[in-house]
Amino acid sequence: MKDLYGADCRKYEYIKVKAMSVCGRYGYSEIYTPMLEYSEVFQRSIGDETDVVSKEMYTFVDRGHESITLRPEGTAGVIRAAVTESLVQALPVRLMYCGEMFRYDRPQKGRYRQFRQFGCEHIGEKSPYIDAMVIAMASEILNAIGVFDFTVLVNSLGDEETLEAYTKAVVKYFSRHEKSLSPESQVRLTKNPLRILDSKDRHDIEICSMAPIISDYFTKEARSYFGKVMELLDAYGLRYEVDNFLVRGLDYYTHTAFEFKPTTGEFRESIGGGGRYDKLVAMFGGPDISGIGFAFGVERLMMLLSNEHFDTTTKTVAVIPVSNSENDYAFSLFRELHSVGVAAEFIHSGNMSKKMKAADKLGCELALIIGDEERSSDTVSVKFMNATESAIKSRTINAVSTVQFVKNALGGHKS
Ligand code: HAM
Prior knowledge:
- This protein is of the alpha+beta class.
- The chain folds into 2 domains: 7-159 and 219-308, BirA Bifunctional Protein, domain 2 (2-Layer Sandwich); 317-410, 3-Layer(aba) Sandwich (Rossmann fold).
- It contains 15 helices and 16 strands.
- The strands form 3 sheets. Strands 1-5-6-11-10-9-7-8 form an 8-stranded mixed sheet, sandwiched between helices.
- The radius of gyration is 28 Å and the shape is elongated.
- Histidyl-adenosine monophosphate (HAM) binds next to strand 6, strand 10, strand 11 and helix 11.
């Protein structure tokens, strides 16, 4: 679990604001769901045999003897809320969310136990146009935050009939290789065979490379649905690759599934992913309607943004009394500046040289110095902290015009 501060906090806010503005244009409104849900909310929807449910959830029994889980992802809670809050009575429902998720993952670069996701769910419309639109919208979010070097991996998990036939084929194939599979995948073979396809075990991955591919088991409808999605992605001019083994790590997907991966830089793992789900809404007691959504890992997006543009702080002015006798007078000027929305620092400890050093360290653009002389002549000495050798370094102004002067000076400086 990572502390976020400084530039990281600014990156986080930036990503959230940009993503929300893109999705707002597509008709999404924000939802906050609880970070804790009854464990069954996740167990049933994500699937008992997935890594997320079987190994990664923070689950505990609360004081009321209920099994509670810290949410490992956003979709289950959002769908649960859309049903319990009766939002599904007026379709489509388009919801976006941003917040903390928890997975007891093996910590490594870009993988944390507490992380943030920005996600969207479009509920109540099923059509290849919606799938293409959602994938394009997710790509637009990446562009809006300045990420252009990525690819979209797409696949289809087909419909129920497809999945049934494919699962049979997969079981047949892996049964022939049972002894060579990892102990974990041997268990998966009987409980949830498709999960073998996202095993991280080296030998499993080798065996998986020759496994049957789902497109050979598509029903006519599933094939034509996926074909249309790809045709529309082509029309959008989106760079995508078909990955026949993309089954995603969660059980609720049907039809279109997709994942975003960076194509440059050190980090090449998934920065976001999603897909369509036909059964999830009904599973939570809602109508028999389909939905589609995705989530980006915000920390992973943050890794793709350089710190350069996020290191800047607000332009500030230092108010510096020369000695203790000017403290009260300087403090009232400090309060006046804040009352009109100017960011000011009140620096009154140490000798003058220490105070000036402190103003410099805090990155103040201007120092307003008030000594005995200034007070008696109703003036303020201004020092431009970033002035170059040739530029004006300091000047004296009338005390009454200080606020206006500071506003003009800060407004005219580049941060
Ligand atoms: P997911 O692929 O499990 O999908 O997670 C989405 C993204 O969250 C990943 O691509 C990754 O960027 C980020 N992420 C996952 N685990 C971690 C971690 N331990 N540390 C940092 N980042 C992480 C879902 O969660 C689905 N709910 C997406 C979705 C929405 N499908 C339909 N609607």
